Amino acid sequence: MKPERERLGPEFVKLRLQAPDGTVETPWAIDLGGGTYRLDNIPFFAYGVSADDIVQAAPEADGVLKFMKVVKPSGNRTLRIAFKDKVTKTEPLLIRLTEMGVGWEGAFAKLIALSVPPETNVQKVVDLLNQSGEDWEFANPTWEGLHSGE
To answer: Which residues pair with 116 in a beta bridge?
Structure first.
């Protein structure tokens, strides 16, 4: 079997993102040249970055590309849900979010990262999440970023 990168194509690379608590994740990105990349996954732990953002990254000593900054935001918003119980693709909340145009990726059977595109009303997503009784958070923009003017 070919390594995952070869199956995806040479333009796909892994980026190292680090959360404030030190947690590291390595989502896929598409190499756009000149040290810029389009993030191809929804971040699970990092803040201030979303799927499809154009980012700058630089190789570290181990050769892995380290995220430096967002160059051009995609307009997508990242939210996360920490379900109390394991979830599957047939979870009613996930089905409803998908119907609203929200993309999602799962990790650890309970953690779901959401990508809310610019054309989707984020307040309707927030209302649905609040009604769900599940724990959730804003990741990009962060809660503080949304309410910095208050």
So the answer is: 77
pLDDT in tens, 75-91: 999 999 999 999 888 89
CATH of the domain at 103: 3.30.70
CB count in 10 Å sphere of residue 118: 10
pTM confidence score: 0.86
62: burial class by Cβ within 10 Å (0-12, 13-18, 19+)? exposed
At 149 the pLDDT is: 55
Same domain? For 96 and 38 the reply is no
Which residue range forms the structural domain that includes residue 84?
Answer: 77-146
For the chain, the domain total comes to 2
